[in-house]
Alcohol dehydrogenase catalytic domain-containing protein
Amino acid sequence: MTGPSTTMMALRKHAAGEHALHLDEVPAPQARPGWMVLDVGYAGICGTDLHIVDDEFPSWPPVTLGHEFMGTVRELGEGVEDWSVGDRVVCEPHSLACTRCHLCRRGLAHLCAHKRSPGWGIDGGFAERVAVPAHLLHAVPDKVDDVAAGLVEPLAIVVTAFERTPVPPGGTVMVIGPGPIGILCALTATAAGAGRVVLVGRRSSAVRLELAAELGLEVWDSAEGDVAERAYRHTRNRGIDLVVETSGAAAAVAQGLGSLRRRGQMCVLGVSGEPTIPIPWGLAMNRAADVAFSLSSSWSSWDAALALLARGAVDPRPLATVFPLTDWAQAFAATRDRGVVKALLRPVPHSTTRSTP
């Protein structure tokens, strides 16, 4: 452990309406009862972070961004048990869930309307340290390195989706959208026993499609003919068993519904930027489709995600490009421009290196 320090660097949004971030020197967090302070190892930039900057997602500034992170326990608050200084951990972003509403009492605290997650409701992980509730932590297995641990949160979102709509053993799964969530969906569906997995994307996502192909995934360019027609042709006119939609685009939703077999399932993970999008309602009825919408990450998905990493069933590290916290502007620009698949910030003081695992 490093010596005591009363200040640290943190990447913060100062006020609503100010579409900018600032790397500030701020007071370091202190452990309070039931909470712990972590030294942040890696923190991932999510599409939600871009929306927070642009005031397109709720936040409570001034606030330090970053809700996807792993770290090492630095300080234990009063009453915290079963953890030790130096433990490597990841943290569910469901802080301040009320524990009293019908969702919390059903075990769905991740959907609680009262929660204020790190990164938008309270200070998050784009900083050298972060304070988190101890009950939200999960231990990182020894076999899982820090970079992989820094990607557990998006993997947990994927696992939650497959809790809602399980992968059919030996079945055909189509994933639409080759972003980080889409690629992780395809990798996880493969690990979960799908017979065939297809990842569909556009030419504008060439970097991501190329990486997916390098990882051994079957990739379809949506510009090369009608996706639904191709799906039926490749399944001997049966259709897809499970479609996972991760893009939020209206055209992709229509492609997904059109690709389903009758009584097929569709899981929606993509968040649309529009308040309404046209849906081929009659087609969905004709397919007798089951459509589920999956949001955030369940408690059980975190241990499951860590177990997948520990046995090497899913390896997310090729998705990551690491930037020091001081290069946050380049990391955000690369995320916006899709120049990287997943940017991780490493809040190491005075770091000047950048690496791709």
About this structure: The radius of gyration is 20 Å. The chain has a mean pLDDT of 94. The first strand starts at residue 7 and ends at 13. The chain has two domains: 7-155+298-346, 166-293.
